Amino acid sequence: MEKISQDCPYPGCFFCVMKEGNPSKRRASILKFFRELPSQDDDGQVLPISGLWNTAMAHPNDPEFIELGIFECMTALIWKGLKNRRWLSHDQNIYIPYYAAHIIGSYTMNMEEFAESAVHAGVVPALVELLRGRLTWVEQRVAVRALGHLATYASTFPAVASHGEILELSIQLAMSSLEIVYSHFYQNADRRLSYHCDLLTRGMGGVEMESRKAEEWASQLQCWSLQLINCFAFKPEFLSTICKPDFLAKLPGMWGGLVNENSPAGIGLLRTICHHKVGKGPVATCPGMIEALCNIARSSDDWQCMAIDCLLWLLQDPTTCHKVIDTAVPALLDLAEISSLGDHKKLGDSIVNALQECIPSLGTARNSVSNRIKDDIEEILTSRQRFKWEKNLPKEDLHIKQAASLVVKLEGNSLFSAGNISGAASKYSEALSLCPMRSKKERVVLFSNRAQCRLLLQQPLAAISDATRALCLHNPVNRHAKSLWRRAQAYDMLGLAKESLLDAILFINECSQSTDPDLSLRQNKVPDYAERLVKKQMREAWLFKEAAIKHGGVHIEGHGGEVYGQESDDSEWETASESDIGNDDRDEMGENDKARYDKPSKGTRAYIQQTDDDA
């Protein structure tokens, strides 16, 4: 089909048909076009298909083309591309199977009745062939997207599930998608298929743009595969296939990356699995799984609640509680004072109730749970009682307790300034025991300051715990800048690049909105110390890193354990007592959070004096 001019000589031209003013003639012509297009071999067929692709994305709920046979037409074109390689390689027909599958996915995205029409039109077998990899990963991406939409609806899920290989193929694709895209496209820029490049950038970018879009599409290929698997995971009969140890172990690491941060990805699937009794056992016994869930539960991203749900459900099930309690309880204790998070109201109360209930379910055996865990749970329960008790105290008594806490905190600040980090940490602990429970701002500062001490004492796990508690107490939740930065450094010490990266990015976001002169971005410039950490962790958390190492790409050496920062300006130094007056947030340790990238060789004292006002 040739490109159409205003005086088009082709009576059946799709673009002329769309301009038809008579509705009945227009519908009849469109119906005829859809019926005849798959059997035609004219040049330029990609032009109307790309036009339909644009229409489907812009108006996915419009029923006109559905009623006139677009699904039958797209299905026939996919089969034609699979069976007739000569036609596929002619002109620009190589684009057509991709556009056809994309059109199917767009029209089935929102409307169940459209999905039913698609199934009746026979789209599923054609999409399965693309999912198998009969063409390339680009077509796999749009096939898994379309199948994921069809599997979402109760009326069309059986048609998807009837093809037994779909679940297995999706699992394989979720695990291998990043490697496939890296090895087949990203790795060799000079051997990239031209139509892949055109689809990725719409012809408007060079090699660098292609590479960025390839990372985004690889993430989508993985996340859409997980979305399809998630539809199966709602049915217990499919969990034995999904809950294979090698697949479960990889799920926490499937996070979408920064290019696809809106997808629940692996943690979303884990939540669905944990919702079923039959799914809890494999998750509870998967090596490293509970530690990974704890890291996500402590995080400040949109999917924190999903990890918390998983941990709570595992604790509340008598068959899995004893398997996870030693690892899960410390993380949940850190979150016990969180108020609300997303749609979860009184989340802290739910956590405390679950902790309280899990002990009796384990029985009385002393070896069923460590004494330390029991003591920690009792401590949080005691703090709840203390909160209720303080409500009945006279205001004068509360003021006395707050003043005593302040005195001890200032002693801690002095010890910190003198280089006695361990002594300062002890003083902050003592101040926390005195501080009224309802004095949340002061307790945020104390937990955050103790986190900094523990960071300097090379105790990253304890630093993460304290920083998390500070973030839970803060209003708004998870938005205390200095605690985010301290936790980012602690995660870095443990080699947890993704967690460190997310906290560092949130820290920069908070700095951009802060009125604190020590945090606000001067001239909209990201602090050097934060930029260095973000760049490092972006390399370490790069979606293609594992594939690059496997296929001979450049291995990026880590620098675990370093504390990132900038040189301080000694003129900014204030004493802790001066900065503590009249500002709830200024009595935290400051410039040490921006400690030098290379630690000084003059000893702890020289290192510590790179603080500003709040020790």
UniProtKB/TrEMBL annotation:
First and last residue of the signal peptide: none
Domain of life: Eukaryota
Pfam short name (any one): ARM_7
Every ARM repeat N-terminal plant domain range: 6-244
Biased composition (Basic and acidic residues): 589-601
Start-end of Acidic residues biased regions: 567-588
Protein name according to UniProt: Clathrin, heavy chain
Organism: Heracleum sosnowskyi
